Batch of 2 targets.
Target 1
Amino acid sequence: MNKIFLIIQREYLSRVKKRSFIVMTIIGPVLMAAMIILPAYLADWSQATDKRIAVLDETGWFLEKFKEEDNLTFYYVFGNLDEEKENALSKNGDLLLYIPRTELNIPVNSELYSLKQPGLNVTSYIKSVMKQIVENKKLLASGIDPEIIKSAKVNINLQTIKVEEDGIEKKSNTEVEVGLAIFSGIMIYFFIFMFGVQVLKGVMEEKSNRIVEVIISSVKPFQLMLGKIFGVALVGLTQFLLWIILTLIIVGIFQSGAFTDSSSAMDMLGNSDVLKNAGKGGIDPMIMVNEVIGGINIKVMIFSFIFYFLGGYLLYSSLFAAIGGAIDHDTDSQQFMLPVSIPLIFSIALSGVIVNQPDSTLAIWMSMIPFTSPITMMMRIPFGVPMWQIYVSMGLLVIGFIFTTWIAGKIYKTGILMYGQKVSYPIIWKWLTKKY
């Protein structure tokens, strides 16, 4: 056991001292904090530029119907198309909206001329105005007052309330839960691959440099494999915790106003339309946020994320270590990594199904199978999962790790000293069934 600890210590210290680890530990929190802070600063820079649009309407249906909207100014022209196009584009640098006359059909076609590609807000506004005018004309032709249709439209507010087994009611937000579920699943997927591949690369490097021959003269191959797996796991956990702490520190510094004044972007963020709308009707925005978060068991989320990250990593890194011990060249890794990675890829591919039906039979079984449970269960937890299912899933993941470690150990023990032999699936099967 002491030898395993020595290998873990060696793997951990050798990796955390690398420049790449230090750089990524610094860059990661900066990027994560930037995703939170930059939108507030960029909002002031992303104001749409003023656009003037000349309207040449040969039908007369849309005269004076286009109003100033979101930096858009409309004016009407009545010449022929070529002249007005020349005046608008070449002389004034404006856009030209041309609505041709139709003899039999209603005017549903139009053309927008511009020197540059118009923004989505321009085309969306023009189409919405034309759609509304044409629909109103058709309603009037049928003897229906458009105002009656308009007055009949209502907005429905649906508040979801989660009732727990003890009868306690908590407000929830489906959109927040879906976002949190997808984010958690993708992060688990990202970390498993990122640190699992590090194990594979480390084993291949030692094998190609023949360093492993010296190492296994003092330790057993299985001990070496376990040491490398747990050593890299500690590196990943250290980096993950540092990312969280540093990100919270950076965001906290900017939120405290240390680098902003009263007219800064953070004030603008605080006065945004989202918070204004949230405050309508005497509702405190912070109370709304607390109610939404209160519907999610944050403690279970954090504990589960750490557990499934470590459990998923340990399961897959043992297989990655076996692959690294079996092959000699990096080019051979893809054909063996793909079959191993299919369950993870399958989990991400079905993320839409999981978040839409978190209690379906498919979602439950995928959250129990060790090869898919790290991602699938993390996607289900924000919606509320019975604790017995979480415990069963965790237990099966531990058993899965033990089983894959046993398989990987048999492959690793033989493959780590094999050089020059072209590895195939029949050969790996022979290593697995070999009696020692």
Target 2
Amino acid sequence: MPSKRIRLAQRRKAAGFTQEGLAEQLGVERSTVGRWESAETEPQAWLRPKIARVLGISGDELQTALDDVTVIQAQPSERVNYALENPGSADLVVVAYLHERLRRLDESYDQASSTGLLGPAGHVHGQVKFLRENAGNPRVRRALYEVEADSATLMGQLVWDVSQRRDHYAPLTYFDEAVGAAHHARDPSTASYATLRMSFVALYGEKNPGRGVMLAQRAAEMAKRTSPSLTGLSLLHVAEGHAMTGAVKECEDALRKAETQFDRVSTDDVAAPYYTVNEYNRLAGSCYLFLDIPERAEPILRMTTRALASKKKSQAIALGNLTLALLRQGKRNEPWAQDINDRLLALMAAI
């Protein structure tokens, strides 16, 4: 449900600032201030003293304003409410409404905090699962399985993010649920994507590149007949898993196979927006960092960071990798190295 930090907004107005004016004083984007006030995100710890100083309040007063979150009751859909009270009555219109709510949450993933998205996403996921378990119409049940596959995948992502990648069991449980729902819906692309997400947990959480490669390869096989984009994206993570073990040949073979998928992508491929040259370069740069070849990673990552401006979470990862590539080459004192560091800190404050 929508939320507001009313006290924080009042403090800003009392200090004589619009959201844009406060953002300019702090060196952040206006949308960042908007997300603070809508309780989607919180300011980073290092930025809070400056916020308190600009607003003319103490650190404790700022913390109180941040903690004071008012939940705004959204106007519910009468049709969905009726279906939840009488689950056998759910129809395709109700499914479409829930799918649209989920789509909007999913599209916010790269801009909003995972903490802010987790509650609304869990609410939708619970409703979808409840209606699917009680659906009487086979067509409605299959459509709900499709939505459940997507909602379980999003929940797995969010839970893992919020746990700071420490909780592996809960995300894998959601991803496994997503694969099962996708099989019921006969949707190999969604099953592939959920499996690919499992490989992320193995690669970046469990630090198990062997299992990560196996899962990413399985995802590529699932997607092979339906989505060249997902196939390519999965192969990029096969490459990264090999890079983690220092297997140069296997890594570069997987990168070449991933690159060939670009020629097969069509406008009918629903995953096409996610498999771009920028994403390819971001992962290729990461591979060469794992292989300890920073001089090859640097130009790839430098080209990628600005192109990812609209995907703040991906851009933050690319900037972090670029900083690491520079440090490994002993370039920390060059002027543009400081500029990259400043951009990374500003981005961290915005997500």
